[in-house]
Amino acid sequence: MGPIRVLLADDHPVVRDGFQRILESDERIQIIASASSGHEAFEQFRAVKPDIVVLDLTMPSQEGAPDNSSISGGMEAIRRILAHDSRAKVLVLSSCETKPYPSQVIGAGVKGYLTKRCAPAELIDAVVRVNLGERYFSPSIQDQLDDSAGDSSPVNQLSSRELQIFVMLASGHSVSQIAEEVFLSPKTVHAHRSNIKRKLNLKANAEIVHMAMRHGLIDP
């Protein structure tokens, strides 16, 4: 059996190179491709067919897209990869540790979720275990999942697609920008925005920003 073939996606080259060195310090793992945006991650996935995708959430949807701190790129990559191959093994490696991100992307079908504060040995162990068909979550993420049943935050009512668009709206993206980045029609984005406002009982766009700030989904 050959090494575990990994696609590594992160928009910061220094961070990506650091994680590559960690992973390839173990002879069982080989980085076969890398990506710096959600679109590139999906295209590389189709091209190289890795055993595992290790990706960050906070990267742009496409090269040159505005607001590189947005989660839109990582979430879009997850959505497109799993729609293309429901058996894909995706391991999130991200600094996004706050609710509702972990439960949302895990619900979307990822096999594991690590924080970027994890030790090198934990990262390697997670890749090996996910490759074997197991699921792996950092202890802090697992604690959140265990507590999620009693969480009444209104943001938890949103689907993963609605959460993605909610954060993009709160970050100042226009409907046309969102439509282009997430490969939807403006009409569909308008419909999602209406559903988001209805679910969260919001009237004005400014209320979207304030709610996102209150829940730590965007910086003040």
Number of helices: 10
Can you identify the CATH class of the largest domain? Alpha Beta
Name given to the CATH homologous superfamily of the largest domain? Response regulator
How much of the sequence lies in strands comes to: 5-15%
Query: Helix and strand succession?
Result: EHEHEHEHEHEHHHHH
Outline the biggest β-sheet: 6 strands, parallel
CATH architecture call of the largest domain: 3-Layer(aba) Sandwich
Radius of gyration: 17 Å
Q: Residue-averaged pLDDT, rounded?
A: 87
The CATH topology of the largest domain comes to Rossmann fold
Which oligomeric form is depicted?
A: single chain
Question: Any overview of this molecule?
Answer:
The protein is an alpha/beta fold and 220 residues long. It has two domains: 4-149, Rossmann fold (3-Layer(aba) Sandwich), CATH 3.40.50.2300; 154-214, Arc Repressor Mutant, subunit A (Orthogonal Bundle). 50% of the residues lie in helices and 13% in strands. The protein is built from ten helices and six strands. It has helices at 13-24, 38-48, 72-84, 101-108, 120-131, 139-147, 160-170, 175-182, 186-200, 205-214; strands spanning 4-9, 29-35, 52-55, 90-94, 112-115, 136-137. It has a six-stranded parallel sheet, sandwiched between helices. Helix 2 (38-48) runs parallel beside helix 3.
Question: Can you describe this structure in just a few lines?
Answer:
The protein contains ten helices and six strands; from the N terminus they run βαβαβαβαβαβααααα. The chain is α/β, with parallel strands linked by helices and 220 residues long.
Characteristic terms for this protein:
six-stranded parallel beta sheet, Arc Repressor Mutant, subunit A, single chain, about 220 residues, 6 strands, 2 domains, 10 helices
